[in-house]
Write a structure and sequence with these properties.
The complex is a heterodimer of chains A (221) and B (288). With 221 residues, chain A is α+β, with helices and mostly antiparallel strands. Chain A has two helices and 14 strands. In chain A, the strands form three sheets. In chain A, strands 2, 3, 4, 5, 7, 8, 9 and 12 form an eight-stranded mixed β-sheet that branches. Chain A has a four-stranded mixed β-sheet with strand order 1-6-14-13, with no helix packed on it. Chain A has a two-stranded antiparallel ribbon with strand order 10-11. The mean pLDDT of chain A is 92. In chain B, a hairpin with a 4-residue loop joins strand 6 and strand 7. In chain B, helix 2 (52-85) runs antiparallel to helix 3. The radius of gyration of chain B is 27 Å and the shape is elongated. Classes of the chains: A alpha+beta (221), B alpha+beta (288).
Chain lengths: 221, 288
């Protein structure tokens, strides 16, 4: 009788272990793929990271959450749904970001100032600025551990040809460029600071709490 | 001590006087353990001596640990004593003697433990307030306020970053916390989105950061150097990354730093909302 009980408990413990293992394995493998930055043209040197932000990722890239706001990264001429980027250590990264989303406004206007980029500025549609109107912010690209804070202005409401969901090429957008230094090797998280998760409490749930949408990692190697 | 082989009314003939023997063992063990707790373990209990409040908390932990030592020693030693001396002999299949109540022992036990618990509660409450709310925050209306000038600094939490606003320096906001040594700091801890907790470990400061609440803490840093800042309230995806290093510097270095910060963050300062003691999660253009 005791042996049977022991066997039953052992089986239950083993089953629980397998289930936990499966959960962890699923969680780990559900991370988006890491995308390496491309080499920048010899004239500028360093590395090139080309990103896109969209109001809705669409069914092509995310069948489970097609209406979630998201970042995408360009790799070998194709847009990839990922927010994990591999960058070389102690190097300059030039970022070009196509911003297809409308504005939401920053909750903390302090983050409307550009910080930590080379020159302390960003270029928006060809114009160099050191800050934007916090009301017009759509997203931010922020790497707190590297001190990089870049606010991204939204597409004006009145603009024609607004993008519904990714891919958005050809739709109304803002073009933002900036450069920053990666520093030493490590894994740095980055995130958006604009509460942009439509339909969630205070705009903070869903894509704001899931790697692969409004936050991710810089794998500096 | 009233149970089993040691008969409540006294020891059986031939049995040693367990009560006396155990009391001697307990007193000796406590006399050995107390200095170890006070002088060896106490200094290791943290949070260190980064501020007057942190040093005070270290002393408080030592007092509490020292208070608990005789009780812990009593319980552990009695357990061991019982296992060794009241063990049923091998092969004996006898039932032990009936356990009966012992009013004097029970009454003493209840009175002593009640006094200890009440004493510790009073001590904790008094010391918490004597520390000017550093260990918990005093809410918007602190009961005790240190005398003399104080540097107000607002701690603003959001998912997932702390920023710091200095209202007496044009309301400039920064991403790092820098404080002058040996000056009273008046921290106003709040949040602009969800609940967080501001924890500056070596300063002995830990205060809830809630939206719409101004949680006031007074602290006097006494040691130059860095201290760890982290969020102590599970607040979402990147809670584990919500950390930074703060710095305590000489007043002259602080003056230079704040002057530089005012210049560096001038573009942001221009668009900041007027200084307010609390914030709410706004705007919520996309949220519910």
């Amino acid at each position: 009788m005791f042996g049977k009980k022991l066997l039953g408990v052992g089986f239950a413990v083993a089953l629980l272990g397998v289930l936990i293992g499966l959960y962890v394995a699923t969680w780990v493998t559900s991370q988006p793929p890491a995308v390496a930055a491309a080499s920048a043209p010899a004239s500028s040197g360093g590395n090139q990271l080309t990103l896109e932000t969209v109001a809705a990722i669409g069914p092509k890239y995310s069948p489970t959450h097609p209406d979630w706001v998201s970042y995408l990264v360009r790799n070998n001429g194709k847009w990839i749904h990922s927010t994990i980027f591999t960058l070389p250590a102690n190097s300059v990264v030039h970022v070009t970001l196509y911003q297809y989303d409308g504005d939401s406004g920053l909750r903390n206007p302090f983050l409307s100032q550009v910080q930590g980029t080379i020159g302390g500025t960003e270029t928006i549609d060809g114009k160099v600025v050191d800050s934007i109107n916090p009301e017009e912010a759509s997203h931010t690209f922020v790497v707190p551990q590297l001190g990089v804070f870049v606010p991204l202005p939204g597409v004006p409401e009145e603009a024609k040809n607004q993008c519904e969901f990714a891919p958005c090429e050809g739709a109304a957008h803002r073009t933002v460029t900036f450069s920053f230094r990666t520093g030493k090797k490590g894994r740095y998280r980055w995130q958006c600071f604009v509460p942009c998760a439509a339909g969630y409490l205070y705009g903070l749930g869903g894509p704001m709490q899931t790697v692969g949408y409004m936050s991710g990692f810089l794998n500096v190697v | 001590m009233s149970s089993s082989q040691a008969a409540p009314s006294g020891e059986s003939p031939g049995e040693p006087n367990h009560t006396l023997r155990f009391t001697v063992i307990w007193v000796v063990a406590t006399l050995i353990a107390m200095p170890l707790v006070i002088f060896v373990i106490g200094p290791l209990l943290g949070p260190g001596n980064g501020s007057e409040q942190a040093s005070g908390q270290g002393s408080d932990y030592t007092v509490l640990a020292a208070t608990a030592t005789p009780v812990l020693t009593l319980v552990v030693l009695y357990l061991l004593y019982s296992v060794i001396f009241f063990r049923q002999p091998k092969g004996a299949a006898l039932e032990g003697p009936a356990l009966r109540g012992h009013a004097r022992v029970q009454t003493t036990w209840i009175i002593v433990t009640s006094l200890i618990v009440l004493g510790v509660a009073v001590f904790g409450t008094v010391r918490l307030e004597a520390g000017y709310g550093a260990g918990s925050g005093s809410g918007p209306n602190p009961l005790t306020v240190p005398k003399g000038p104080k540097l107000p600094v607002q701690v603003i939490a959001q998912q997932w970053l702390f920023t710091y606003r200095y209202p007496t320096y044009g309301g400039v906001e920064t991403t790092h916390l820098v404080l002058p040594v040996n000056e009273w700091i008046e921290l106003h801890v709040t949040s602009i989105d969800v609940i967080h907790s501001f924890w500056a470990y070596q300063l002995g400061v830990k205060a809830d950061a809630n939206p719409g609440v101004d949680n006031v803490v007074f602290v006097k840093p006494t040691k130059l150097g860095t201290f760890n800042v982290r969020c102590a309230e599970l607040c979402g995806l990147w809670h584990g990354y919500m950390s930074d290093k703060g710095q305590v510097v000489r007043p002259t270095a602080f003056a230079s730093w704040i002057q530089q910060a005012q210049k560096t963050f001038a573009p942001a300062t221009k668009v900041l909302a007027p200084y307010s003691k609390t914030y709410l999660p706004e705007p919520t253009r996309r949220g519910e």
